[in-house]
Amino acid sequence: MNVHFTQLAQLKDARQQTYKHTLIDRLRTQVSFDAACCTSVDPNTLLSTGAFTESGVGHLHNKLLEYEYLHDDMMKYDQLVREGRSIATLHGATQGQPDRSRRFREVLHPAGFVDELRVPFMYKGSCWGFLTLFRHHKQPAFSTEEQQLLEALAPSIAYHLRQASVGLCPVPSTTAENEMEPGVLVLSDKLSPISSNITAEQWLKLLRQQEGIDGSSLPAPVRAVCLRALSTTLPPIGQASVTSTPPARLCIPSADAGIPWVTLRATLLQGGQGHIGENQLAVWFEPAKANDMLPLMAEVYAWSERERQIVQLIVQGFSTKELASELHISAYTVQDHLKAIFLKTDVSSRRELVWKVYSRFN
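Now predict its structure.
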């Protein structure tokens, strides 16, 4: 099990795609598989912030995303995270009868795969990515020993995937780029582009470069927010309704030093008569604001829900007395929370905390 995953964290110039690619290469020395996909996600929404997909399964990636968000099936990643399951295989989940899964019948089996293994990468209770491995029909199902090995490696991988997501982003410069107009992209409900402004095209180009895909493909984060927007309006096929679905919004790191983080949002535009084929989706891109980044910062610095509330109010300029009044707690309790926040965030004052929020992520 001496795979040296910690060495990946020392590649300071490596971005997420390099990490994911190298990760899959290292894993292949330990476990046999015919194709793989490694996806980083927003820990608050579980939406994809970027994916590295090997050529053997690249043509299936978009279809698999649709099944993840729009169809009811077994072993979906949000289910694995919600249930606290660290690993699962299709062969195991179906008791050796994978054709019980619609995803298997309609996507995997026609492509020649016999088993699928899924690992949610969890670090301190938050999910930072997913790993999906596939095996062809001529290969055996994933063994218990192989699952145990991947399960043991998963926490270390999760930590370094988290670092690749948030630890290597440049401090933004104060350029006019931060004042650019929002990018707007309109697509059909089949995710075919209809129209866009220049800013949206610039963002799409940048995200495609980061993901290593051609100009005709939608980046995984754009596809993910669109599918989430569709799923919040239309219940997944085979499922009566959706409950507590996170919003169609996520923040992703950008390769642009002027704007290191971008916020993507999507919404469904209803057609004239409300038919599915007449609906359109609107996606917009904006430099991430402090309030957009606070949920992610809360995950990064392990703030409690109360600490997150206090930071949000501090950013708005609340004094200790105002914090106590707003949250219905004593000033002494506020001070105790502040000490914990300062310790976790490695600052020593409110001013440093606010600076860290704005200079790091705004």
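Residues 144-166 form the longest helix (23 residues).
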